[in-house]
């Protein structure tokens, strides 16, 4: 019995899946870069502490910025207490244990921070953390 030997076609490099992967990676890095920049773009100088932990972002964490004059900003939009309450109420209804990070300027009056915390707790938000920064070493100057 004689068997026919058929040559298999050599494997070729497929470009379409590679292009798809590159577009996916590009989209991921653009979205991630935009998400991480929201916290740093405002001119908020958070208090310094030597005991502060390294800043880690929790997925879905909402950042509330409190400027030195007491104005509240979320996602580059200034809000009053009623608007803040409405946003926090929606987040509390959608996500159980919604994390919130408060970035209050070091020169902000304590009452402004308490007002924001009070609004968040009335809306049902309890997972609140505070942003700090480590003091700059004299050798870094």
Descriptive keywords:
141 residues, alpha/beta, single chain, Nucleotidyltransferase, domain 5, five-stranded mixed sheet, 38% helix, 3 helices
Question: What does it look like?
Answer:
It is a single chain. With 141 residues, the chain is of the alpha/beta class. It has a domain at 44-50 and 58-135: Nucleotidyltransferase, domain 5, CATH 3.30.420. 38% of the residues lie in helices and 15% in strands. It has 3 helices and 5 strands; from the N terminus they run αβββαβαβ. Strands 3-2-1-4-5 form a 5-stranded mixed beta sheet. α2 packs across α3 (110-123). The protein is elongated, with a radius of gyration of 25 Å. The termini are far apart.
Write the layout of secondary structure elements.
Elements: H1 15-40, E1 62-66, E2 72-74, E3 77-79, H2 81-94, E4 99-104, H3 110-123, E5 127-130
Parallel strand pairs: 1-4, 4-5
Antiparallel strand pairs: 1-2, 2-3
Helix pairs in contact: 2-3
Report a brief summary of the structure.
This protein has 141 residues and is an alpha/beta fold. It has helices at 15-40, 81-94, 110-123; strands at 62-66, 72-74, 77-79, 99-104, 127-130. The chain has a domain at 44-50 and 58-135: Nucleotidyltransferase, domain 5, CATH 3.30.420.270.
CATH class membership of the domain at 44-50 and 58-135 = Alpha Beta
Tally of strands? 5
How far apart are the first and last residues' alpha carbons, in Å?
85 Å
Please indicate the percent range of residues in DSSP E strands (runs of 2 or more).
5-15%
Q: Helix coverage percent of residues?
A: 25-40%
Please state the average pLDDT score. 81
Number of helices: 3
By CATH, the topology of the domain at 44-50 and 58-135 is Nucleotidyltransferase, domain 5
Biggest sheet layout: 5 strands, mixed
Radius of gyration: 25 Å
- Spatially, the strands of the biggest sheet line up as 3-2-1-4-5
Q: SSE order in H/E notation?
A: HEEEHEHE
The low-confidence parts are none
Structural class: alpha/beta
């Amino acid at each position: 019995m004689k068997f026919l030997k058929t040559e298999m076609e050599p494997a070729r490099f497929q470009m379409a899946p590679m292009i798809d992967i590159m577009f996916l990676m590009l989209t991921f890095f653009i979205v991630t870069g935009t998400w991480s920049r929201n916290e740093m773009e405002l001119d908020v100088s958070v208090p310094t502490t030597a005991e502060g932990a390294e800043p880690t972002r929790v997925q879905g964490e909402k950042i509330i910025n409190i400027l030195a004059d007491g104005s509240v900003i979320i996602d580059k939009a200034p809000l009053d207490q009623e608007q803040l309450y409405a946003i926090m109420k929606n987040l509390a209804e959608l996500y159980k244990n919604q994390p919130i990070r408060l970035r209050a300027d070091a020169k902000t009056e304590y009452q402004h921070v308490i007002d924001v915390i009070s609004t968040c707790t009335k809306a049902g938000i309890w997972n609140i953390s505070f942003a700090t920064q480590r003091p700059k070493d004299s050798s870094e100057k």
